[in-house]
Design goal:
The structure holds two protein chains of two kinds. Chain A is an all-beta fold. Helix content of chain A is 0%, strand content 52%. Chain A is built from no helices and eleven strands. In chain B, a hairpin with a 7-residue loop joins β9 and β10. In chain B, the strands form two sheets. In chain B, strands 2, 4, 5, 6, 9, 10 and 11 form a seven-stranded mixed β-sheet that branches. Classes of the chains: A mainly beta, B mainly beta. At the A-B interface, β5, β9 and β10 of A face β5 and β10 of B.
């Protein structure tokens, strides 16, 4: 059963770069075109926001609202993918989740999710 | 961007009662809609995809319906473990993949 786990600093200073890594257990993130590997976030007490996706082909999508600040990359040797968000402000304080998205025609749900990691910008 | 609107924001229900949660899309998403359950301090958990397909292991008391712009998640007889926040998500028109703001089901 696939499991995901986020890791990275829990505190980032304003104007600096937020960097998180998601480690995927079981299987390879690069051997299937059925899935993408995604980042989402949830500010305290608020709803869910999709940030971006990366595919095994290296193709990626970013949220229009975050596009100018986000980079998602992958390390094939470690079965990990990463998020970098530059020039953070207090509005970027959130629980950050990595998740697998089932891709394809009439597909696009997120399952499973990592447990999430709280990143505070202060 | 498709905007998803959920109602009500909070639903107060007694154990054993039926809960009906609504989700509306700003334009048609066909049946490309998922529902998630989130408990405090936990990640969201996928319940339903394709508007009405229950994920393996999800109890039959959870059911989804609707298509186009109007969707419903029904919990037929609320159990104590069902009190949580529920989110809908569309995957018809992307990016971005978008979520509703959530409905909290409380006792």
């Amino acid at each position: 059963q696939v499991q995901l786990q986020e890791s990275g600093p829990g505190l980032v200073k304003p104007s600096e770069t937020l960097s998180l890594t998601c480690t995927v257990s079981v299987g390879s993130i690069w051997n299937s075109n059925t899935y993408s590997w995604d980042w989402l976030r949830q500010p305290p007490g608020k709803g869910l926001e999709w940030i971006g996706s990366i595919y095994y082909t290296g193709k990626f999508y970013y949220s229009p609202s975050q596009k100018s600040r986000v980079t998602i990359s992958a390390d094939t040797s470690k079965n990990q993918f990463s998020l970098k968000l530059i020039s953070v402000t207090a509005a970027d304080t959130a629980v950050y989740y990595c998740a697998r998205r089932t891709d394809g025609s009439q597909r696009g749900w997120f399952d499973p999710w990592g447990p999430g990691t709280l990143v505070t910008v202060s | 961007e498709i905007v998803m609107t959920q109602s009500p924001a909070t639903l107060s229900v007694s154990p054993g009662e039926r809960a009906t949660l609504s989700c509306r899309a700003s334009q048609s998403v066909s049946s490309n809609l998922a529902w998630y359950q989130q408990k405090p301090g936990q990640a969201p958990r996928l319940l339903i995809y394709g508007a009405y397909n229950r994920v393996t292991g999800i109890p039959a008391r959870f059911s989804g319906s609707g298509s186009g712009t109007e969707f419903t998640l029904t919990i037929s007889s609320l159990q104590s473990e069902d009190f949580a926040v529920y989110y809908c998500q569309q995957y018809n028109d992307w990016p971005p993949w978008t979520f509703g703001q959530g409905t909290k089901v409380e006792i």
